[in-house]
């Protein structure tokens, strides 16, 4: 996996999974049903899910059981690479949150990656 | 253990079993106390230069037997008291060479330079006085300017005198094997100066009977100026040049590996050797030959157990080397457990030392509680019911020595220090500590740790003999990679010279306002 020990500035190659989450309307809020952690303004050493402890990407830290994210197949520990075409590997925490919670969008299409993906792809080759 | 030959006249002791040791000890302690005065001569011989090489027989063998004070410190190692053994002879000869007579050579250099200096100091006065004495009438009168010059001359001579006294009039600390180059240079320079001034004076002033007295006074003043500058040169060459450190000397003692590092400046080898020896006497723990060897029991086991028989060989010369080689090879192949024994022996020794040290500390603490200082306002007759006799420090020391004597003796014997501390020296140290209100711990510090060699020196005007062994001429300057050694009879100090590294010092300025901190963030947002 080229994600581990990534050199900043170099292009990242990763095996990703496309996940489409339909937002659920709860009162006046549109919720997705998961929590994110990470960002370039955060402390990457505290991330329990990343392999490379200098990785400042956005990770899924919690998935609400029964929520839209779980239904779509999002798993805790996934790293979000793109949200609706917006890059998530070099954003601040707040920017990531904003991209996910745009009131004008009903659906978010995520590109996520996880370690088991790479292993699965390699095994199938 | 067959050590009878080591002890004089007490060979019967070896036949006694260890169980009767106590009786023997008690009996002998009385005897040794009365023998003290008679054997004092012998005792003092061994204590004299203990940090220095004692013959091995003197210090080590005493421990294997549980003997008394008198025995372990006397050195008469012959089969009887009346025969002079080989050790006696070597000891006597070593005595002689250790305390070499006051050599005239020691003072030759300083005396010579003293004479030269005195001559140089008196020369300006001579320059002034000679015209006055010889042709006073022909001199031009010289008023105020001359008197001004007289004053300046007087003060400069005074300064010269005082600084010569401060710098040069010191007893020499060492005799060097070769000439001290800088000192010779300076003496030659002074001689040259003064000689050339006298020459000029003789030819141009005395001969034609020069009449310009002011010029003569000015000439004398210029000589004094030149002497002051030479003294400045002497100060720089002899004292100041070696102050800035340039080399690191590693000094290792060959016998037990005690080592130190010192920083010195630019010196010649012989001067560096003198400097190292000065530091040796106060830094290095005293050389105790008894502490060196692995216990015999461990080493001897290795080679025993193999006997090599030659079968029908006529040629005996080949045999011996073949035999020893075979023995060594066989011993090497055998499973070697001596490290195990060494480890346990060390642990056992340590435990023994600690136990005896504990007993010693307790005994000394208790002994010190028996006396207290008499205050000025208390009088001896304060309580007529309990008259206390007033003692001076010596008597007080002797009074409290008795309870701690045995513990002290055992401790010293376990740590192999008993040659360095005679009973007399312990009592006088005790007296010293009592006089200065020291606690038992302060009294014991002398015995619990081996001190520097200086602590054990007797006042000796004769000096110590050291040999400087070097592959380079000893007047050459120190440089990298130089190795020289300083040898005494049984041990040597090996000195290695390395230059101190050149330092590239950089600068980094930190604005005091630039120290700012933030908390590390790890937030989690639910979306």
Automatic annotation (TrEMBL), chain A:
Q: Which SUPFAM superfamilies did the record assign?
A: PDZ domain-like
Q: Name one GO molecular function term.
A: protein kinase binding
This protein is called: Tax1-binding protein 3
Topology versus the membrane: Peripheral membrane protein
From the Swiss-Prot or TrEMBL record, state where the protein is found.
Cell membrane; Cytoplasm; Nucleus
Q: Where is the PDZ domain?
A: 18-115
Keywords annotated in UniProt: Acetylation, Cell membrane, Cytoplasm, Membrane, Nucleus, Phosphoprotein, Wnt signaling pathway
Q: Which GO terms describe its cellular component?
A: basolateral plasma membrane; cell junction; cytoplasm; nucleus
Which terms does the UniProt entry file under GO BP? cell-cell adhesion; establishment or maintenance of epithelial cell apical/basal polarity; receptor clustering; receptor localization to synapse; regulation of signal transduction; Wnt signaling pathway
Superkingdom of the source species: Eukaryota
UniProtKB/TrEMBL annotation, chain B:
UniProt keyword terms in alphabetical order: Cell membrane, Membrane, Transmembrane, Transmembrane helix
- Record localization: Cell membrane
InterPro entries documented for this protein? VANGL
Q: Ranges of Basic and acidic residues compositional bias?
A: 34-43, 58-68, 84-95
Residues crossing the lipid bilayer are: 107-129, 149-168, 180-201, 216-238
Coarse class of the protein's main subcellular location: membrane
Query: Can you cite an annotated GO cellular component?
Result: plasma membrane
| Pfam families, A to Z | Strabismus (PF06638)
Provide the topology term for how it sits in the membrane.
Multi-pass membrane protein
Domain of life, per UniProt, equals: Eukaryota
Q: Quick check: keyword Metal-binding in the entry?
A: no
Q: Output compositional bias ranges, type Basic residues.
A: 15-33
Chain segments carrying region Disordered:
1-95
- Which spans does this entry mark as compositional bias, Low complexity? 70-83
Is Amino-acid biosynthesis tagged as a keyword? no
Task: Give the similarity note.
Answer: Belongs to the Vang family.
Q: What is this protein called?
A: Vang-like protein
